[in-house]
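Researcher: Re-running this chain for the archive, since the previous output was lost when a drive failed. Same request as before.
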Amino acid sequence: MSFQGRKESILPDIISYRSCIDAWIRQWQKDSPQKVEALVKDMIKKYSMEGRKDLRPDADIFNLVLKACAHATVTWHEDIEKEANDTPISIANRTFALLKGKNEFNANPTHATYAFMFIAYKFHLDFDNSRYTPLLLMLWKQCCNDGLVSQFALESFQDCVLDYQFWKPLVGGEVCFAGKDRS
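Model: Regenerated structure tokens:
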């Protein structure tokens, strides 16, 4: 049996892309979000232009982009110095907007989408900024309205805000966790 003249190649599939993406996330490098976003864009390009239906991105792939943003070692102080489109926050916001809007992949947010957004905001936004807490509260309300509250999302939200900011939207009105009796 001769293979001369026969052109064969092994094409990367979605598992190959996920493995590479996971490796970049585990590097905990400053440029991990950019590398992960580039891999996803490459995957989308092959899906769209080459008709590679096996590379159709789903919510899990986009959540990996958010995870890379959440775990990047850059802090908000360094983010300010970078170009706006290249920061973990800008990449996370683009990815979140894609999931929240209509997209050709029919990918929608999951509970992990919200959890990774909370984590990304925690590590890449200025906690002292007057817009920080309202932004997180708005994101929490979206999570609740979408019916995507999970233990992961709840704990991620709790980890990003002060205790009274966490409990107030959960129990409504007066905060009762500080030893006050509601009876």
